[in-house]
Amino acid sequence: MTKAMKKYLFLHFLLFLICLAVLPARADQVEKIESLAEVEFLPKEEFEAKTQFIEEMPLEDERLGFTMRLPKDWKPELAPIGKLDLSSGINKKVLQEVARYVSPQRFNLRSFFTMQVMELTYEIGAEDWLIYHLLRTGSTISAMTEYSPKEAEALYVIVEGDTTYIVRTKLFLNGPRVVIVRYFVPQEDYKAERTMQGQVIDSFRLTNPEEGGIEDYATFGFLDQSYFDYPASWTLKSKFIKSIERMRAYIYRGIERTDEGDLTDPKGQIRVHLVSKLLDTNLSNEIKEFRSGVKYPGYDLGDVIDVETFNYHDDMIKGRAEVYALKPQNITMIPYELVVSVSEGADYYYFVSMLSPSRKMEYYDWARNMEAFRIVVESLRRQNVDEYYEFLDMEGYSPEEIEEYIEEQYEQMNE
Q1: Is the pTM of this model over 0.85?
Q2: What contacts 214, CB < 8 A, 6 or more positions away?
Q3: What is the per-residue pLDDT for 297?
Q4: 62 and 25 belong to one structural domain
Q5: Model confidence band, residue 184 (pLDDT cutoffs 50, 70, 90)
Q6: Range of the structural domain that residue 10 is part of
Q7: Residue 32: phi, psi to the nearest 5?
């Protein structure tokens, strides 16, 4: 081994130890997060009597419009700064505050409400993005609830200057941007203000919510047998399909070719494998076959560390997803996680597996990978409805022309 190689391995080992010292502590905190406790709200009439209705369009942009209710004696603090072009103005790296309201001063302390926005580039779940953001800002997360992949709420503690605040926050993924609203209460006033804090955050509504995801989706079809969607930032690699009995596809991100033509470690990779029920097999045998093929050089397959819940497509009879630890045999190698979803349709068994850096080491990469995995798993379907109706709309075409068109589509999907 050369001196340069020894130096490289030593530096890599030091970096690994630093990660072990810092990130697992954060991951342990994530694993202990409880769901938000229910807050007993004031009766509607009493709440409305104590609050004012707010309807605002920050920066005069309708895509940031919102309504909510705030205590009557609160006042806006952020001065208008002109209209913002969201296509270029929203920062992709820093949250921008676009609205702020403050309470009257109490013993040199105030409660306050803020709204922040930032444009995102890649798909990620609301809960995962919020966890990542709060941990990066040094917050201590007390409780969190995810209402959907696009909405999550949390309660956390943060110190600003000499003041400790208990903050209730709600995050919305609205099209390609994240919207965060926060209600800060000084720790001394939290008991008296807890109900109002929860009810104010609950009253917040975006007036122009956007459909769609953060990024565009692409669709892959296993001939006309099954389909799935995936984020366009991922790269598809599929082999030529010779038989509809067993079909495979592979998407990945983060792989680059070196000068020698080798591939570096991927940031994430997802494999989709279909097995026809026409074969002389069953789900139990296929699971055993799949497990026997789970071999990663330098890693041992560990225990189940989590069970994921997905909204499987109506074409699926049943499905289950589990997360396994991949333990490195060498301390200089980072741990990975293997996520596996097994589902059954009327005609096929579906196996989807993902290899990702562990959440304890690279939380953002892990979260981004999990969202891509969710999109693939939940979109797996037997029929592609849009394509089906496109064929139906070909009125006036001969059967031969329609068949030729379909064959062309299949060829394009498998190029």
Answers
A1: no
A2: 120, 121, 122, 123, 124, 173, 175, 176
A3: 86
A4: no
A5: very high
A6: 1-32
A7: -100, 5
